[in-house]
Amino acid sequence: MKQSRRQFIKSSATVAAALSLSSLSAIAKTKRIKSSSKMKLSWTPYDLELRHTFTISGFSRKTTPVVLTKIEYDGLAGYGEASLPPYLGETQASVIEFLKKVDLSAFPDSTHLDEILTYVDGIAINNTAAKASVDIALHDLVGKIIGAPWYKMYGLDKTNVPDTTFTIGIDTDDVVREKTRETLGRFNILKVKVGGPDDKRMIEAIRSITDLPLAVDANQGWKDRREALDMIHWLKEKGIVMVEQPMPKLDLDNIARLTEESPLPIFADESLQRLTDIERLKGVFSGINIKLMKCTGMREAWKMRNLAETLGMKVMMGCMTETSCAISAASQLYAGMDFADLDGALLIANDCFDGATLEKGKIIANDLPGIGVKLTKNISFER
Ligand code: MG
């Protein structure tokens, strides 16, 4: 019985892909995906080991804690992830505490993404990475139930994606040159963390190795608008193509003036978390950096992308240090965006998923259903 139902659902996948996402639950209702089984959510903490010590304006670290999630249903399993860089306030303990409150047993149909994820979002305020870990696992599961990768359900061409940047952290000239050399031939654009006292020296060190386009991320590090504008003009001369979060996140008046005068597009990162933040940033920034961990996952990221584009803003897809699980989730929905910063899984030494891969400088989703991941390590999930 199970087999024939799966076959039937699979044959409906082409139809599902051609329809809008909001029609998904309607399909599920009319074709009635019935099951007596209930969704089971489980999780495990996991520590990512970074290949290089990572320094941005104000912070330095060698590991990133994450929590991996799994939602099982009717013999299928969807995987998710919460990545927890320490400066964002969530911890493995806070994520697990949140996940313990999530009761999916009340939802008989796992394809009702909107209903389920609205419930998850309402459990507590904040906890965006914890919510993302449920959202990603549920998207993975639903894609597996329907038998299609999400990029197809979004109606996107998975190869029409921007080159991913690869991040060079703040470091000594020798290390910066060595890191830059390691990227040659693999990437078409690099990202430089600036906002420290040695920005120009860093850029010159990179420029001594490569002429590749560069994105810069100041992580709020520039405090004076005039100095920031002078710096941006200098950066443009050096082949920089975009600037991320130049000034403190709440200093919107100065950022708006900077954006108006800047010869390069200015993107919001720290100034923005979720969907409801976007409208007030129109006219302040040229574009927004969408990250699954900040915005509670794929469902809201998709809405943010559409709203920003409707408002005439540029869009980029970003990430934290993450395994190929969350990166593969992001890879499903960023085709057609302006920039991408999806190097998270490339920065770690102990990835535990196979998923989207780096191909000629782009992160490309595979054709597996859901978010397209396979667990490659023997990890046990518990509840
Ligand atoms: Mg950033």
Task: Write a brief caption for the model.
This protein folds into 2 domains: 27-147, Enolase-like, domain 1 (2-Layer Sandwich); 152-375, Enolase-like C-terminal domain (TIM Barrel, Alpha-Beta Barrel). It is 35% helix and 21% strand. The chain has helices at 2-11, 13-18, 24-31, 92-101, 113-121, 128-146, 150-153, 173-183, 199-207, 225-237, 252-261, 292-295, 298-310, 324-331; strands spanning 40-56, 59-73, 76-83, 165-168, 189-193, 214-217, 240-244, 266-268, 287-290, 314-317, 339-340, 353-354, 357-359, 362-364, 374-375.
Protein architecture, described:
The protein has 383 residues and is α/β, with parallel strands linked by helices. The protein has 2 domains: 27-147, 2-Layer Sandwich (Enolase-like, domain 1), CATH 3.30.390.10; 152-375, Alpha-Beta Barrel (TIM Barrel). It is built from 14 helices and 15 strands. It has helices at 2-11, 13-18, 24-31, 92-101, 113-121, 128-146, 150-153, 173-183, 199-207, 225-237, 252-261, 292-295, 298-310, 324-331, and strands at residues 40-56, 59-73, 76-83, 165-168, 189-193, 214-217, 240-244, 266-268, 287-290, 314-317, 339-340, 353-354, 357-359, 362-364, 374-375. β1 (40-56) and β2 form a beta hairpin. α4 (92-101) crosses α6 (128-146). The longest helix is centred in the middle third of the chain and has 19 residues, at 128-146. The protein is globular and about 65 Å long. The two termini are 29 Å apart. Residues 1-19 and 27-32 have low confidence and may be disordered. Residues 217, 219, 244-245, 269, 289 line the site of magnesium ion (MG).
